[in-house]
TrEMBL record:
One of its GO terms (cellular component) is ribosome. Residues 1-37 are annotated as: Disordered. InterPro entries: Ribosomal_bTHX/bTHXc/bTHXm. This is RPS31 30S ribosomal protein S31. Residues 22-37 have a biased composition (Basic residues). Keywords: Ribonucleoprotein, Ribosomal protein.
């Protein structure tokens, strides 16, 4: 387990790949965007 492990998020970050562990489009952040008026 570590950087070379494709099954972990860290391994996917290291290899620049995406999958179930590390989705290409992560869930939207909790804070909503604030409109400047």
């Amino acid at each position: 387990m570590g950087r070379g492990d494709k099954k972990t998020a860290k391994g996917k970050r290291f290899q620049g790949s995406f999958g179930k562990t590390r989705p290409a489009k992560p869930n939207k952040s909790k804070k909503p965007a604030v409109k400047a008026s």
